[in-house]
Amino acid sequence: MLPLVLTGCAGRHNWLASAGAEAQAVEDLFWVLILGAAVIWSLVIGLAIYAHQTSAPRKEPQARRFIVWGGAALPTLVVGGLLIWGMVILRDITAKEGDLTVRVDGERWWWRVIYDGPDGPFTTANEIRLPQGQTTLFRLTADDVIHSFWVPALGGKMDMIPGRETSLTLTPLEQGNWGGICAEYCGGAHALMRFDTIVMPPDDFRTWLAAEAAPAEIAADDPGWQVFLDEGCGACHTLRGTEAQGPVGPDLTHMASRERLGAGIYAMTPENLSRWITDTDRMKPEVDMPAYPHLSGAELEALVTFLMSLE
Ligand code: CUA
User: Fold this and answer.
1) 3-state secondary structure of 25
2) What topology does CATH give the domain 223-308?
3) Which UniProt keywords apply (predicted)?
């Protein structure tokens, strides 16, 4: 049964291949529980078979000793030990102040991510970058319905509840791109509500943070920027430092620097972006963004080139 159940555990969503301190603590507890349970189960079954096969009656003091040690003392020791260990782990993984604080809001069906930049808070979306070996405190909330924030390889998960703030601490230890998912059914595109969690060396992270905090670099005469304005993209999306200040959809200030689009589901390529703009519903059913199939070939190309320049 175990291999069958574990066939789903592979790749970057594998919580049994921990890449963070909090996930490691839970994984250790899991293996001790599984292996310990296997040992105790074998012992009980072995004794049952033995009892079934021996017909000689037991002497009473021997039976009483067995009941006291095997039935009371051993379980008390094992369960008590697990309780204490579990409480130590709980203390270690409970949210606490970190080297860094990131706010994440769950939206249908994407993630609004707010960092403290060098000049104050700024917003990005659907990709979280973290410094390796440092502790990050996540402050979580939701805009509409209950979501759940989970990066299986790093730790978690934690519900995101409208009108209430929950928190979670993650200490990534290994560099890499660890997948994040929404772990609470939240509507039609729940399964497509994903994000990337990119763990990088602290120095690289600081460089990235400074670049990400900067406003968008736009040439006023860029034809794609004109299409962006004419089609009213700025009513929903923000490009920091420009007149586009829409708060509804993901912030696009440095969208081309992200690895994926559509909340962690498609590679960030010009082809996928074109399809996203003209065929949004098919790329992600039930998404709020309307499709723009009426754009001419030249307009679409200009818009995609412009958006892909926002690094
Ligand atoms: Cu958000 Cu499921």
Assistant:
1) helix
2) Immunoglobulin-like (2.60.40)
3) Copper, Electron transport, Heme, Iron, Membrane, Metal-binding, Respiratory chain, Transmembrane, Transmembrane helix, Transport
